[in-house]
Amino acid sequence: MSSTERITFRHPFMLPGLDRPHQPGTFDIITERETLDVSWPAFRLSMTLLLTEAGGVEAVPVTRDELDAALRRDSEQQ
């Protein structure tokens, strides 16, 4: 099962996997929940941030912790 949320960065930002800061903007986060084959309800969570730039789209795998840290840094900038 997947879900999509939109996030906004107001300042240039860095995430693991990027070789340079990315321009600010609003981006889609796709969260995939994969059910695990165990005897209790469990799932594996993965996230992908879709970045757009100059007409292209790039998918960057990101963890919730990495994303939250980048959003926190963005909100602390003046």
Describe this structure as you would to a colleague.
With 78 residues, the chain is of the alpha+beta class. The chain has one domain. The chain is built from one helix and four strands, in the order E-E-E-E-H. It has one helix at 64-76; strands at residues 2-9, 25-35, 43-53, 56-62. It has a four-stranded antiparallel β-sheet, with helices on one face. A hairpin with a 7-residue loop joins strand 2 (25-35) and strand 3 (43-53). The longest helix has 13 residues, at 64-76. The chain is elongated. The mean pLDDT is 88.
Q: What's the layout of helices and strands?
A:
Elements: E1 2-9, E2 25-35, E3 43-53, E4 56-62, H1 64-76
